[in-house]
Input
Amino acid sequence: MLKHLHIENYVLIKSLDLDFRQGFSVVTGQTGAGKSIILGALNLALGAKADTKSISEGERKCIIEAEFDIKGYGLEEFFENNDIDYSNNCIIRRELTDTGKSRSFLNDTPVLVSVLKQLGVRLIDIHSQHSTLLLENNTFQLGIVDSVAGNADAMERYKSQYEYYQSVCRSLIEKSDDAANAKSNADYIKFQYDQLKECNLREGEQQELEGRINTLEHVSDIKESLERSINALDSDGGILSAMHTLQSSLEEIEAFGNSFEELLHRVTSCQIELKDIYEEIERKNNDVEMDPSELEAMQERMSLIYTLLQKHKVRTVEELIEIRDSLALQLGQIDNYDEEIEVLTKEKSAIYEELTKLAAEISKKRASVTSAIEKQVMESLAALGMPNSVFKVEITPTADITPTGTDVVQFLISSNKTKPQPIQNSASGGEISRVMLSLKAIIASNSNLPTLVFDEIDTGVSGMVASQMGAILKKMSVGMQVICITHLPQVAAKGEYHYKVFKNENTNPVQTYVTLLDADERVGEIAAMLSGEGITEAAINNAKELIGSH
Output
């Protein structure tokens, strides 16, 4: 339950500390006094969208802090999953600066706003006037039925599976499109691949061919140079003959000193190297022969490679090999598409079957509570001044699975013995408020929610109906905390704790304050609500009677 609310620099509130208690609390005040400000601050603490306009004029930061007693509500796992220390005393804090920066804390641990929202829905249900309008929405109506049916866990599983199902459907569509596109290009891809494969390209082949062609195109020049080199080495008076003479000369003086021996070794090494060079040149001279057919074949091969390089807009054979391998992968992928599509199709069917089974279970539970909902709502409406009302929960199956199952829920109502019509078409504002309160009473009895807050749920009613509304709200507060912002004395009189919201017009800027009324102050406030500013003795007596009657 909500234990304490601290508001600092929020709209017209400079600083406010409010303690709340278990049971039924009412909040009253003149129109414009700031009752909605308190509700806005609480919503901000629970993760509502932040707006710098909420910061009090002239201030740089506002702080909202809400303290909850969460003992016994099974929230330990939530805190563990979010890596936050658990305490029975839970403190939520939200800070907003004039730069638009917002910070959120849970038990002094910084958290994302989404964490506050997730926790907030398990701590408190705030019913605003906007919420009453939601009653006209079929999805909202479906949610009410699910709440009474206890479908929360089943719907969580269903929604998770439905999202996965949608993901598989998208993957199947994408894969099918890819397969169609690939198959339409399959012949062209195969032609390109076959052309490259038949070439039997090798890494380094381009350089080898260019080198060999260059050699064959200059055979005569090469042989002429090689023969001159052979003559220079081995002819009379050639290098080898001279080296032999040099070696013999040094051998004659080798014994006369180490330096001569060293020179001989160096000459001998040169002679051995020159002989190797001579033999290599001779072999190359023998190997180099003019072969027109080989040259033609190599030129044709090189021409083919150049054509492929130009066609695929690359510069090397290695890049052509990469293209060939990529085309092979594409062809393999085309062959695998059917298999992948078959796997996805089977997966889609399996998930669809699971979803339909889960939806059927959910639908069965929905159908099982419709009569009870109708009965309880009509009993509440009778107590709220609509004795002839007929309330129906109409469930229509959908043609296929939807994000919420296979049902469409429609609330129908008739207040004057006519055929029930959709509530959005036939109910007045006051009637919708009474229906909503009746439904909230049912939900409260079927939920483990600590706190319910109502913002003028009594709009459009008065007199005895208002008194009955108050009685229902008080009954709801047995075992839970109910806080109701009201403008009706009949409802306010039912409260166990009464808070008054008022403005001080003499401050600059104007300030909003809230105070917990004692017994005498409460009588005066309800008397003022009954008679206006001029409180009469009759109004005071009437107020006492209203308070005493609860």
Notes: The chain has a mean pLDDT of 87. The two ends are 23 Å apart (CA to CA). The chain has 19 helices and 15 strands.
